[in-house]
Structure formats: C-alpha cells, structure tokens
Design a protein that fits this description.
By secondary structure, the protein is mainly beta. It contains one helix and five strands.
C-alpha cells in the first residue's frame, strides 16, 4: 500500500511581489495566518523543500527582532496560499492605457 501525499507547490511557483497568506510565528507559537509579501527565497534551490522569505506588511515596517513582533519570516511553500500580486499584469496595464488612465497622477506632473 502506498501513501498518497498531497502535491506540494514548489518555491518557483511564487515570485517576488506575490501576496500570500502565511502563518505568523511569534516565540514558537502561531499567532494566526496573515497576509504577507514574498520578498525572496531562503535558499538557492527552488524545489518543494526550499523556503520563502516573506514580510507581514500588515504588522508594520520590515524588522526582525527577538523581543518584539517580527514582520519578516521564512515559510515553506506548502504553508502559504497565493492571494494575488503587487505587480500589475500586462493586461491590466493595457486596459488602463486604453481608458486613458496612467500610473502618473496629476500631482506628479
């Protein structure tokens, strides 16, 4: 009898700028799952065992401390779920240009 394991998502499926939902650990306990931005990988490999570096932007500036709330963390790809991205897609950029909207606002001119 073989054990069926759930498929794992490789780290290569996530890019810098992706918004994910990840577990937030504080002093060895999970304080809940929170939104975070992927800021890189923990290792040179991008296989299913490689981790991701994330920033929990809802908790404040990116800091890593031993006594306060950590807003930077390392997580495994199997622990996170992708919610979106911070980078606009090419399709939405074309749509904005077509409708006369640009990324530069009046106060930048």
């Amino acid at each position: 009898m073989t054990a069926n394991s759930a498929p794992t998502t490789p780290a290569s499926a996530y890019q810098v700028g992706d918004i994910v939902r990840a577990p937030h650990w504080q002093r060895g306990r999970i304080t809940g799952h929170r939104r975070a931005v992927v800021i890189g990988s923990l290792a040179d490999s991008t296989g299913p065992g490689a981790g991701l570096r994330v920033w929990f932007y809802t908790l404040g500036a990116p800091v890593l401390t031993s006594d306060g709330p950590n807003t930077l963390a390392g997580v495994f790809p199997r622990e996170v779920s992708k919610l979106g991205t911070t980078c606009p897609s090419a399709r939405s950029a074309r749509s904005q240009r077509r409708h006369g909207r640009t990324t530069t606002h009046a106060y930048w001119r």
